[in-house]
Design brief:
Elements (H helix, E strand, L loop, with lengths): L3 E7 L3 H12 L4 E5 L12 H6 L1 H19 L15 H25 L3 E4 L1 E4 L4 E5 L5 E11 L3 E3 L12 E2 L1 H4 L8 E5 L3 H12 L3 E5 L11 H13 L3 E3 L3 E7 L4 E7 L2 E7 L1 E4 L3 E3 L32 E3 L10 H15 L13 E3 L4 E6 L2 H6 L4 E7 L4 H6 L5 E7 L5 E8 L2 H13 L4 H6 L9 H9 L14
Parallel strand pairs: 1-2, 1-6, 2-3, 6-17, 8-15, 9-10, 9-15, 10-11
Antiparallel strand pairs: 4-5, 5-6, 7-16, 12-13, 13-14, 18-19, 19-22, 20-21, 21-22
This protein binds flavin-adenine dinucleotide (FAD) and nicotinamide-adenine-dinucleotide.
Length: 478
């Protein structure tokens, strides 16, 4: 086997493996390096997303929602269920099966596309050489015309609450508790805190989330964040804002968390604590000092809008570069880079990357929110519509939340959509398509939406922007 490839990708997460597949589809000889190995010493493909992120968390979100529905929401449908039981080991086995099916699927795709998978830690050296160190410490040298860095991210730790992997865990630990905690503490009311906090709350844990910021979900549209906070409180999530954790004391059975809030000091005792305060790029030892690649003070690799680093022929994609840490953002960067390596002028429209919190109901957004438009001095209009006035939402008993669409007051072009409510992720995806096609609110108004669907809330929100909503009384929206 030659040690030279047209493309070497370092890291097999959704950014790296998707990039490698697209490179191979374009006829480029491609190698993919992965440092993690599975129980049989084969490369553990799929990165954070498939192994300890998007997929296992959604498997547990789905299982826990079914449990909560069966326990609490079937009676109103006239359905009685006795003796609902919970088998956590079985739930975990199901989750692990899904993960191995998908990681196995990635291995199959890489093989089918004739991608060389190399096991070990890759480090970029000067001149697009790549040093590979395998699990036994053996070193081999490879070279490539193009190198794509896709080494992903890892959880941030905070000094007052060191992870011990038992009482105090990060998101990975929180995906494999062997029993439902009676009292669960979570530090950080971000995406992970809300999703994994919801999983264990639905399964019966009393969940307290300690958030340092005074504002809940500050990156979300304020109205949607407020509405979400109300819904989560109704579900029993105890979210305490302005809570600064000062220390953690661990005993074999419990963990006591000290935090300050305003002028007061508090303590809370839990049987488990999840630390979910963000993730940081994994760029230690990824490249040598003379490789030509550099990072900002937080470790994000400097790239231009096309994910090219400062070193010729070296690219970086996914969680290690600026922008939201989202699997779909990284994958599309991977595709763009593959196309660019092949000589096409591919681009990525960062304005329309959706973000979703997979709580129940979901919270989802794309484009600009109201506070951003105000700050930019844009003259905009707003259309909102509550799910409570949607027939399908009533029929499903999913009446919490609303759809909100913001558009340019002059041109009518859609600038963003913000949803908390049933199928929020899929509804926002409709607006992603609309925005990508530079659609206006009027375009949505003129479209026919199936009845009865949740999508009708999108139609009505577009109509509401011009005071034309049918199924509610139209009032000024801002
Ligand atoms: P990663 O997926 O982190 O993959 C990087 C890979 O590179 C890893 O396999 C790593 O072992 C390997 N690697 C690192 N260094 C080297 C090296 N030197 N040599 C060889 N290999 C190396 N995002 C969403 O969009 N939707 C979700 O629902 C979602 N849910 C999430 C839930 C949780 C609990 C977590 C933790 C994250 C979630 N995310 C979600 C975020 C998502 O997982 C990441 O944005 C995504 O995985 C980043 O992809 P990536 O390819 O950049 O990096
Ligand atoms: P996050 O940035 O979403 O939230 C972290 C929260 O912790 C913030 O609200 C922050 O103010 C708070 N915080 C920080 N330090 C604190 C402290 N000392 N005490 C109390 N609170 C503190 O980060 P996350 O939830 O860890 O998730 C990491 C990343 O993973 C996200 O940015 C997201 O991109 C990705 N992710 C995405 C999804 C999804 O797309 N559904 C799901 C999970 C994770």
């Amino acid at each position: 086997m030659s040690n030279h490839f047209e493309v070497i990708v370092i890291g097999s997460g959704p950014a790296g493996y998707v990039c490698a597949i697209r490179c191979a589809q374009l006829g480029l000889s491609t190698a993919l390096i992965e440092k993690e190995t599975d129980a049989s010493d084969k490369p553990q493909l799929g990165g954070t997303c498939l192994n300890v992120g998007c997929i296992p968390s959604k498997a547990l979100l789905d299982s826990s929602q079914r449990y909560a529905d069966t326990k609490s929401h079937l009676a109103e449908h006239g359905i009685g269920v006795n003796d609902v039981t919970l088998n956590i080991p079985e739930m975990m086995t199901r989750k692990e099966k899904i993960v191995s099916q998908l990681t196995g699927g990635v291995a199959g795709l890489l093989k089918h596309n004739k991608i060389t998978v190399l096991s070990g830690a890759g480090q970029l050296l000067a001149g697009r050489q790549v040093e590979l160190t395998d699990a036994e410490g053996q070193v081999a040298l490879y070279s490539a015309d193009n190198v794509v860095l896709a080494s992903g991210s890892e959880p941030v730790e905070i000094p007052p609450a060191p992870i011990d992997g038992d009482r105090v865990v990060d998101s990975t630990g929180a995906l494999c508790f062997d029993a439902v905690p009676t009292r669960l503490g979570v530090i950080g009311a971000g995406v992970i805190g809300l999703e994994l906090g919801s999983v264990w709350a639905r399964l019966g844990a009393e969940v307290v989330i300690l958030e340092a910021m005074e504002q809940f979900l500050p990156a979300m549209d304020e109205q949607i964040a407020k509405e979400s906070a109300k819904i989560f409180a109704k579900q029993g999530l105890d979210i305490r804002l302005g809570a600064r954790v000062t220390g953690v004391e661990v005993t074999p059975e419990q963990v006591t968390v000290g935090y300050s809030s305003g002028d007061a000091e508090h303590t809370e005792t839990f049987d488990r604590l999840i630390v979910a305060v963000g993730r940081r790029p994994r760029t230690d030892k990824l490249f040598s000092g003379d490789s030509g690649v550099s990072t900002d003070e937080r470790g994000f690799v400097f790239v231009n809008e096309h994910c090219a680093t400062e070193a010729p022929g070296v690219w970086a994609v996914g969680d290690i570069v600026r922008g939201p840490m989202l699997a779909h953002k990284g994958s599309e960067e991977g595709v763009m880079v593959a196309e660019r390596i092949h000589g096409k002028a591919a681009q990525l429209n960062y304005e329309v990357v959706p973000s979703i919190i997979y709580t129940h109901p979901e919270v989802a957004a794309v484009g600009k929110n109201e506070q951003e438009l105000k700050a930019e001095g844009v003259d905009y209009k707003v259309g909102t519509f509550p799910f409570a006035a949607i027939g399908r939402a009533q029929a499903s008993g999913e009446t919490d939340g609303l759809v909100k669409i913001v558009s340019d007051a002059d041109s009518d072009q859609i600038l963003g959509a913000h949803v908390v409510g049933p199928s929020a992720a899929d509804l926002v995806q409709q607006i992603v398509i609309a925005m990508e096609m530079a659609a206006s609110t009027e375009d949505l108004q003129l479209m026919v939406f199936g009845h009865p669907t949740m999508s009708e809330a999108v139609h009505e929100a577009a109509l509401a922007a011009d005071g034309r909503a049918i199924h509610m009384v139209n009032r000024p929206q801002r």
